[in-house]
Amino acid sequence: MPIIKEFSSGGIVIRDDEILLILMKTITGEKVWTFPKGHIENGETQREAALREVFEETGVICEIIDEKEFYISHYFFYRNKKKIEKKVFWYLMKPVKDTGEIQTPQEIEDVKWVSIKESLGLLKYDSDKEMVAKLKEWKSR
User: Fold this and answer.
1) Which of 1, 18, 22, 121 ranks highest by number of CB atoms within 10 Å?
2) Residue 27 sits in a domain of what CATH number?
3) pTM for this predicted structure
């Protein structure tokens, strides 16, 4: 069975000692707190996709604060009995303007700013927790 490759981009939006999380439903229907991300569209760069997805899923217009990606997550999962290999390029961002309006309300249940410490109790995915650990290191430099 061939493996389908997918590429996404997302953002870790940081404001002082807080980060922006979204509550979304997984393909199994479970609700999880995570970081905003989504597919890279044709003709879009990884950075453009990350900024667009963060805006669509949170209503927050951001700018990327670091030249290269902050983290790359790489994992496999199954969708409709097909094996998917997924690579996600993550960028550190800061908020520029909060429009207060989620562009994809059918996908996102909630959006909230939480302290970096509080995020560890909410996040489910190991890769998200690894990003928070890396963020703590980055902030302490």
Assistant:
1) 22
2) 3.90.79.10
3) 0.93
